[in-house]
Structures are given as C-alpha cells and as structure tokens.
Specification:
Two copies of one chain form a homodimer. Chain A is an alpha/beta fold. The first copy, chain A, has 14 helices and 15 strands. Chain A has two domains: about 130 residues, Aspartate Aminotransferase, domain 1 (Alpha-Beta Complex), CATH 3.90.1150; about 230 residues, Type I PLP-dependent aspartate aminotransferase-like (Major domain) (Aspartate Aminotransferase, domain 2). The first copy, chain A, has a seven-stranded mixed beta sheet, with helices on both faces. Chain A has a four-stranded antiparallel beta sheet with strand order 11-12-15-14, covered by helices on one side. At the A-B interface, α2, α3, α5, α6 and α11 of A face α2, α3, α5, α6 and α10 of B.
C-alpha cells in the first residue's frame, strides 16, 4: 500500500500554495538538491573521467529503465535524452521507414501542437506525398485505414484530459498493418501504463510533468522489442553508434534502444531526474490511480456543487480520463489569473480551458477542498472581473 | 589586459591534477554550484511561474547572445538548445532547403564523426540523390565546386588540432554559390572567432568544452542575418513557433533565430552555462589567444626536447592550429593511461593520438612543465609498458 503521507514529505512545496499544475511542471523533490550537488562534485573531482567512473555515459539507459518500469516496458527498451519534440521526430522517422509503401501519419486535432509541428516538419522534409492527416479525437479509430503508416497519438489530451484507449487503437492499427506511436507526456507518472502489454510500437514522453524531474528535464523514448533492432535512426548521432568511441567514419546503429541516443546527454538534468525517480520506488501505480480518481471525483463534485458557470471538459467515465480535470469558462483566463493570485495554481489553455493537475504524490483532500473554496469565492465575488486579471497577455 | 590569475581562481580544480582535457570537458567554475542552487530555489518557489518570472523561457536567447559575443556574432542571432548533433542536423536541413537545386554536402574526413553521421542520416532521410561527399582536410578548398550545396566543416580537427581557414573556405563557398556551416566545438572559447566577419552562414557548437558549462551542457546555433528570416526549420518544435502558447494547429516559424528552438530547454543545464559564462566577461579573446599560443609553443618545445618518439600532429604554424596540441605515438593509448594514473589528464583518440588541451583560463607554465616532466619520465622508464596501461578497453 503506497504511503501518500510519505510521498508528500518527499517534496519541497511552498507554504500557502495549492499546486494543481504538476501536469505542467512537477515540484522539487527533496532528494534533488543533494544529488545535484553530488553530480557537481563528480564533475569537479573526476572531470572527464566522470563519463565512465561516475556512470554518466550509462545514465540514459539506467534512467531509461527506471522510467520504463513506470510505463510498463521491459528493461532495455527505453532510453533518456533530448526533448519530447525530438523524440517524436525520431519515432516518426523510424516508423515511416518501417512502412515504406505508406504515406499517411494519422493524428488527431487534440494532439499537442509540438507533436503535430514536428510531424509537419518531417513531412515537408520528406516530400514524396507524405501527409499528416488530422481528424477529431473521436474519429481516430475510424480513420485508421490501410493507407495509414503510423498513428501519432497523445494518450491524454493536454487540454481536456480525455484519455484515448491505447490498447484498442493500437490493436486497430496493427489490424490494418499500421504502426502506433504513443506520446505519454500526460500519462507517465499519472497512472499505470502498459506499453508492452498494449502493443505500442513506439512511445515517447517527458519527465518534467508527473515525474517531477524539473524544468527542461530530458525526454524518453521506448521502442518495442520487435523493432528495436531494425528501426533506422534518422537522427544518427554518435552516441547511437554501435561503437561511439571508435570514431568510425560511417554510421552503424547501436544495439537495440542504444540507437535512439543522439548527442552528449545532459548529466545535470539527468541527476535531477534520477533523484526525482526515487520517490517512485515507493509508489504502486494502481494505488496512485485509485487515489487520483478519488481526488478527481471529489474535485469535480465540489466544483459542480459550488462553482456555477464552469463546464466540465474532462470525461466523467474513469476509463476515459487521465490525472487532470479541466473545466471550460468563457472567462477562463481571468479566472485562472485570479486563482493564481490567491495561491491556487492551475493553468489556462486557450480558448477557455481551466486545467487542474491532480497529483496524489503531494496533494490530498485538504488541497482539493481549499482550491474549490477559493475558486467558488472568485466566481461568487467576481474577483476575476478586475484588473489585472482581465488583461490577457499574449504569452501565458 | 586579462588577468589569468583571476580567471584561474574562478575554477574548482582537484589538487595534484594537471588537467589538459578542457577541450573535452571543462572543469567546474566556482560560480556554478551557487547558480544551480538558485535555479532549484526558483523551481521550488516559483514552480510553473518560473518560466516567466525567473526568465527560464528567455534563457536560450539570453545565453545565446552571451555565447554569440564569443564567436563574433551580433546579438540576436545565436540561440542555445539541444545537443551539437541536433544543431548540425538543423543547420544542414535548413541550408539544403536554401539551395534546392544542389545535392552535395561537402565535408572532410577529419570532421568529428557525429557531424558526418548526422549528415549521413539526413541524406538517407531525404533520398533524391543527396550525397555526403568527404575529402581529405587539405583537399576541401579544391572540392568546393558549383555542385556543392553546403560545406560542413569543423574549424579545428578534434584529433590533430589543425585549424581550417574559416574566412577563406567560406569565401570560396560563396564564390560558387554554396553555403557554409561551421562547427565551432573546438573553437568557441579557444580563440577569437568572427562568424559574422568571416561570413559563415550557419555555425554550431557545444558549451561543455572550452566554455566549461559542464557534462551535457547544451549546444548553440548561429544563423547569419540574411538567412535568419528565411531558413526553414526541419525540426519544427513548438518553442520555435511564432506563437508557441497560442497552440495553433499549424506550424509558423518564429522570428529570426527563435525558429531554431525546438522543445522545452534544459533550465538546470542552462543555469550552469550561465554561471560558466561569467568568467568570460573578464576575458579578452586576443589575450587568451596569445597566452594559449605561448603555452602551446612551450609545451611543444619541451616535449620535443625531452620526449623521444612522440611526433607532433598539430601544425607548427600558429594560424593553422586551435588550442590543443596533439602528438602521435604507436603506444599512445598506454602512454595516456599511464599519464592519467600519474595525475596528468589528457586524452587519447584512435589510432595513435595523444591530445592535450591548452586552456589558459586555468593553466600556466607550472602545469605545462609538470606535464612534460611526467610524460618524459613515463617514456624514459617505459612506465606505459605495464599492466594495466597496455590493456586497451573497447570504450575509453
């Protein structure tokens, strides 16, 4: 049984703040500063030797396996590096190469824009009639036809929190001979995931949201065992080479997931990630999911009871949601500004979404209740209808 | 006049070590730990707000300008992010797009393998008769013909330290209508560079060598003003979008150098870079170059006087070298292992290169002399001809 009092004690949270934005940037785990200091000591004392002696060179694989456990991957199939956008590009380029006679990347209009932009960039680069086809989230299943080379789906919608059925869509893709790439940005650390069980061909994600690795924490990529040894890396960096330190002139992809490495990995960010993952050693993901749904349901019920004008954007069905709850309101931006000013931190996504991350590692009933109370007061007293909350900035 | 006693006091160097590998990984600047702690405090207290309040979102541009000053770029044309390999890919893809009727990427066999691998990966991705053409370093100028779309040259050879003439090769490229990409991995922080004056179209580099940003420090990319607004980003990530937080479905490249940003930047690594760059505020690059040549010449003269069997691999002509000195020896690997065991840290590059980085920010005559003394003793007493030094590891 996961001890959520213990997990909560592992975070350094500011006094007086209810933090409901861990789905955007997780808070500082208490283990991080010590580990960062240790990494700097390694740098100072071992210098270049740290790559071997301190195990820096192995970190992408070692931490890949730590993340792999959280997404239901067998050891040896997940690696850390780069940013999520780069990992999307890698997965897409490799998947298209595995389906050379097909031209369609299928995604949905609810996908995170950067995934779509990276696909657009790749399609433009490739030319040759490649196409990024977008359909509405609910139309994805029907659009998986034999023309489709690969589906690029983010499991949980970054705005509404609506969750796709990974196993079903993947099965459908395989039925028609297509491959599936899953973006787990809002899934990893949010609930149990079974990339292997679900049959995902590729999965990518970031570590700075539910995994709490800090701003700019590196991304991860998973490649299914059956593709690991045949996937061709389009971003053919030296650390994905079979013998990086032989300095051969020609590229030979490394063994399995190693080939998805590119350049020199960010050791200091990885040290933060390593420390952040310690908390997860004490967490059972089924307990996490149960607790998350309990808190989400409480939040939804209380908001609906006391905050008129807010429309639930997140599906009520447990199976169809992740670990965030979103509401729509035409004045969503101003309301969120007022909330933040009152110490309740969520975020806003255009055009009208108020987003609240429900993260049981460091949130409980008290925070949920306090957040709703403040939200209700802001709406009741129309606090949002004042300067400076109504002033919409171009960039939030 | 640069005060090299002061610069040296800014580094945390281990006792009893002569560190001649700053061309691979710079040592820890004393300002880094405090800055890392501050960045973690920002994370803990400002949480998601740090992206605006702490200026995290602007760091790639702000630090880009700080690096830009060191490579002779005008403000606003350099940005930080990703790894050098990724930046090579970005520059290449953009350059090829600017020369749509040409198919040749020209590079030399002395280029760093990852640059060649990334080019190879891009060529394979593009198909359509694109070609990576490799010639010997001394044959580059003659090979710049009207077929060439872009030259991809690393200014200083990572093994020999031989330096290409940036202005001349760039002029030759322009003469035939080609573009030039310069990899400044072994140049930035090694000597004065004039990317704008030299007419470079693109320049890329890393920050963990002479700039001392720490293991896995992020890379940089410079795009010449005349291309900045027309270069098409192949890696079309959201933070290179003109309005990243509008979450539009289609990609529109950001203004100028902004479009070379891709994903969420590594804030903790950037904090280390920021601190590392402080030292450079007190450094005149002409002083640095003079001091570096002085120490290099001293090192060469002493080695040649007292270390028989070592052949200088670095050109004697000042204009033709960077800030590293390399010697060849058939037993180079074992000799370097013995040197490291004796506290003199350089590195080895296959098949027979002993590499020594001469970095005046923290090295002076005493270290140069001590290094040569140890090297001479190792050779005289054949210390290298013992276990474990002779045991060549697969990965060094």
């Amino acid at each position: 049984m996961t001890d959520f009092t213990w997990t909560r004690s592992q975070f350094d949270l500011p006094e007086g703040v209810v933090y409901l934005d861990g789905n955007s940037l997780g808070p500082l785990p208490r283990a991080v500063p010590g580990r960062m200091e240790a990494a700097q000591r390694e740098w100072a004392t071992q210098l270049i030797g740290g790559w071997n002696e301190a195990g820096w060179m192995e970190m992408p694989r070692r931490l890949g396996d730590r993340v792999g456990r959280l997404i239901g991957a067998e050891p040896g199939h997940t690696v850390i590096g780069d940013t999520l956008s780069i990992k999307v590009f890698q997965a897409l380029a490799a998947a298209l190469r595995l389906r050379p006679d097909r031209r369609i990347i299928l995604s949905d209009s609810g996908n995170f824009p950067s995934d779509l932009y990276m696909a657009e960039g790749l399609v433009k680069l490739l030319g040759c009639d490649y196409e990024l086809r977008l359909v509405a989230p609910e139309a994805v299943e029907g659009a998986i036809t034999e023309e489709v080379a690969v589906t690029l789906i983010t499991e949980v919608d970054y705005r509404t929190g609506r969750r796709h059925d990974m196993a079903r869509l993947t099965a459908k893709a395989h039925e028609v001979g297509a491959l599936s790439i899953w973006d787990l940005a809002h899934s990893a650390g949010a609930f149990p995931i079974g990339v292997t069980k679900g049959g995902a061909d590729f999965a990518v994600g970031c570590t700075y949201k539910y995994l709490n690795a800090g701003p700019g924490g590196p991304a991860f990529i998973y490649v299914a065992p059956e593709h690991a040894q045949v996937a061709e890396p389009a971003l053919a960096g030296w650390l994905g080479h079979d013998a990086p330190f032989a300095f051969e002139q020609g590229y030979r992809p490394g063994k399995g997931i190693e080939r998805m490495r590119v350049g020199t990995p960010p050791v200091l960010q990885m040290a933060a990630l390593d420390a952040a993952l310690d908390v997860w050693d004490g967490v059972d993901l089924d307990d996490l999911r149960a607790r998350s749904l309990e808190l989400e349901d409480r939040f939804i019920a209380k908001v609906e009871a006391s905050c008129p004008g807010l429309d639930l954007a997140t599906p009520r069905d447990h199976a169809e949601r992740g670990s965030q709850v979103s509401f729509r309101h035409p004045e969503g931006y101003a309301i969120m500004q007022a909330l933040i000013a009152e110490g309740v931190v969520g975020d806003f996504r255009a055009p009208d979404i108020l987003r609240f991350g429900i993260t049981p590692l460091y949130l409980g009933e008290a925070e949920i209740d306090a957040a709703v109370e403040v939200l209700a007061r802001i709406l009741r007293d129309a606090l949002w209808d004042r300067e400076p909350y109504r002033t919409r900035k171009a960039v939030t």
